[in-house]
Give the backbone structure.
Amino acid sequence: MDAAIGASTSTTAAEGARVPVHVAIIMDGNGRWAQQRGLPRIKGHEQGAESVRAVLKACRRSGVKYLTLYAFSVENWVRPKAEVEALMNLLKRFLKSQEHELHENRVRLRSIGRLTDLPRSVRRELSRVMKVTEHYREGNLVLALSYGGRTEIAHAARRIAEEVDGGTLRPEEVDEAAVAARLYAPDIPDPDLVIRTSGELRLSNFLLWQASYAEMYFTDVLWPDFREEHWMRALEEYARRRRRFGDVEPRS
Ligand code: IPE
Ligand code: IPE
Ligand code: MG
């Protein structure tokens, strides 16, 4: 199709430029993975935590600076209480077990979402690990927790309304930049690549604002099976995409 894609003349620098800065993943399929094995759903979530560890390593090796993981959506609260509790406990265990790794690799932990929804013990652990890693700049791991794209945009709209009401913002100052500046983590660049596992072809309320020009990559692989080889495949596919951003020629 595109002769330039496979051309061996492409320079290393050009290929380097096609590594995404920010990859966001909708980690889906844990329940089905467990079900296929006759195991309780939580076993799928536990195995999914192993995939997170593998992907964190792969991410560092590929030079991707930001990794956002959709770990729990605002919609996920409707799941059976036992599953929600198990997920929250798993999250706490993950934070504890991953702390050393974050220090070692100078990775900053961040989070986006309606964090006040989370149980106090999870919030405490999350705040603690975010605090002790906040000075790291090698990489950024962003956990989307009780996250919903619409909730995030509505929250930004409310802040804007309050500021207009308070007289610190004029209506004519409300533009895209003003909205973006009031999202959960305005300094994080938009995702270049959004990966969804398990064969589902939807966004499920993930980064609705930020993903407006992201490249989408869908795979049938269930999240608990996702490893470095699958990550590499997604990045290779991304490198072949031509991002035009509305223009007639690709913009690098
Ligand atoms: C994704 O796996 C994990 C969360 C949503 C927390 P699921 O639990 O949604 O797995 P499936 O989609 O039921 O297989
Ligand atoms: C999306 O997965 C949320 C997370 C991966 C945390 P879901 O499994 O909740 O999505 P739907 O309900 O199938 O759209
Ligand atoms: Mg699912």
Remarks:
- Residues 22-149+190-240 form a domain with the Undecaprenyl pyrophosphate synthetase fold (CATH 3.40.1180.10).
- Residues 27-32, 72, 76, 87, 198 surround IPE (ligand 1) (CB under 6 Å).
